[in-house]
Every structure is written in C-alpha cells, then in structure tokens.
Amino acid sequence: MTPETASPTLNATAASQAATFTGVDGKGILITEPAMKQLARLMQQQGDAKLLRVGVRSGGCSGMSYTMDFIDADAIQGDDETYLYEPSGAPSFRVVSDPKSLLYIYGMQLDFSSALIGGGFNFTNPNATQTCGCGSSFAV
C-alpha cells in the first residue's frame, strides 16, 4: 500500500505518533500533537496559574495506575521535576512529576484521541511489562 492509497485513519495515526514534543530541555514526557492541543484547551479552562502533575500510584488492574491532575504552583514539592512545554500557537505550560513516578514513566508518550470508544488520554509506556485493556494501569 502506498501513502497515496493509505486510509486517512492510518495517516492520522502515523502523523500523531511522529509529532511528539518534550520539555524545552529535551526531557520529560513525550506528548503528541493531539494531546498538546487538548492540554492547551484544558489549561485555558483551568487558569494561567495551574500546572499539570503527571505521576503513578499503586492500584489499578495491573498494579500501578497513571495520575494526571491540575495543581497550583505552590503545590510543587522540593524534589519534583518540572518541564516547560511550548506548543506552537498555544500558551506554554509546565508539567510536574515526582522523582519516584519518573522512574516508571520516563520515556512515556501521552496521546489523545477524540474517538467515541476508547477516546481520551492514552499512555504508551516503554517501561511497562504489562498493561490492562483500559490503558490507565500497568506493571513493571
């Protein structure tokens, strides 16, 4: 199958996997273009002073689950890592993660799908040895 005959869905999937962003320093979580757009929309709704905290906690189908929440800047802990993301055409935002969570999510890709079934934020974690069907929990 040539690129000209590929379905639009395949082309869109390939494009979202190719366009990923990291923090300004080249580190942090990989965020796809659709996820960047959705995060920019959510950040505008939350207000300028909010940051996105991404992490893991015990629980879920496979033993650990991902967490994402908006926090105030004064909720940053002293040992947290903070990454600045500057999407083109949208305001910049910061992503915060604690050092323990970074051990499990380093190199993870955050994507977003607007599909009616299976839509929402999706995590692709190269460190996971097992994931559940819902995509929000994993094991290492």
Give a brief rundown of this model.
This protein has three helices and ten strands, in the order αββαββββαββββ. The protein is α+β, with helices and mostly antiparallel strands and 140 residues long.
Describe the structure.
- With 140 residues, this protein is of the alpha+beta class.
- 23% of the residues lie in helices and 34% in strands.
- The chain has helices at residues 8-18, 33-46, 99-105; strands spanning 20-21, 30-32, 50-58, 64-72, 81-85, 93-97, 109-113, 120-124, 130-131, 137-139.
- A six-stranded mixed sheet has the order 5-6-3-4-10-9.
- Strand 1 and strand 2 (30-32) form a beta hairpin.
- The longest helix is centred in the first third of the chain and has 14 residues, at 33-46.
- The radius of gyration is 16 Å and the shape is globular.
